[in-house]
Amino acid sequence: METAITAVAGELLSRFISFTINKYCSSKGCLEEKGERLQRLLMRVHTVVEEADARHIANSGMLMQLKILSEAMYKGYLALDTLRFQLHEESSMDKVSDSFISISSATRLKRRRTILAPVNKGKNLYLEVNGALENLEKVVSDIAEFVVLLGGCERLSRRPYDAYLYIGNFMFGRHTEKQKLFNFLLEHNPDGATPVLPIVGGLAVGKKTLVAHVCADERIRSQFPSILHLNGDNFLSIVDHEKAILGMSSLVVVEFVSDVDDMEWKEFYSFVRRTNRRSKVVIISKLERLARFGSVRPIFLNALPYEELWYLFKILAFGSADPAEHPELVHIAERFAKELHMGGSLVAANALADVLRRNLNAQVWFCILNRCKKVIEKNLFAYGQQPKLLMEQGHEIDMTDFALTPVSPLRIIPCTSSGSSATYAPVKELPQMTIGELLLDPSVRPKGQFILLSWESRLPPYTSFIHFVSNCTEDSPEGTHLSRRKRRGVAL
Asked: Of 164, 287, 319, 344, which one has the greatest count of Cβ atoms within 10 A?
């Protein structure tokens, strides 16, 4: 009997201690303290990641550590933003509650209930912040050796000192992928063979941007006096450039939107190898099966992890404004990032951020967020897939709710324009407008068919992402010439 009582007493004591610790850890003071520690660690890790991004890292172990550092950094930033919003929400709630304190017991009970909700949220928030802290502390504990080794790595061409202020004008993230591409291009060809590197990834994840970014480096340009850009329709026309590349180290970049006949590839590869054994070939495609032509391990570009996408979207949406001064907008922006991660793309993230940045108003942001959700829900109901997947497959997308034009349906069909010339010539004859213009003022929508410009990249190769908009509900992808072109391989 005494043993049972002792066991029960011990269990009760353990629960009491656990409750006391949880209550303290979810308190505002404890969370603020952890937030400060998190911010200090993020500053250290961000400094190292930024310095690593400016160095040429050839060591595979260092590349793996850089990937771990960057992942921990973005997760830490997400936890810090969530913490800041929660503290702001609690502070606002305390002010409202204090201004309405009454001596009546009913009012006291009501106030007690309002306080319980943020306390419960605080416990969950504590776990998230503490997890991010432990993750950062773990990577920081091994950072000293990485920094020492980093000092021995050659520095790349220096970017403008204020480039971080213009994140929309330089390539974001992809730290390890950039280093892998640099290593491939700068290393000597083994046994005089012509190496081939496939870069494989989904629609609009930044494959061409990655290649253009690395090719702009001075060392790459000095290594390859001739850089040719071809596509699957004309890659055999490389024979026309024989005089330009004969005896010269050349980098040949080929973009494929459909599979390639093995015999045609052998003909192409044999020609490149004959002209100069110091040349290299880079394949760009969303088709994983084209990796069979590679002589080295492919670089796979996936969609950005949620934490990275959130960090990028926040920077783009606020521009030069300080997010800390707009905690409510930060919370709405986080909900945008969740929707974009599930059913959007980097193109959609840039287009939406460009609109939001013009009007830092919570009501406007919340209205646009609801319209985005309606578009995703409608396409899921009608086609059973997210808009991002529909775009990758070349299907039309219903964006009527997004543009607030219920009387005149808005359905878009993807086509592509790279640089200043459109892939489909008749597109030039149609009126054109940006998605930002349509979103802010639906009344400016042209009558009949028109071209919708969702985003025009400010980075090389300056790709324009355009869509054909039909003028009636009966229009379908199968009934348009553009859609037939799409089925032959034209993609965003």
From this structure: 344
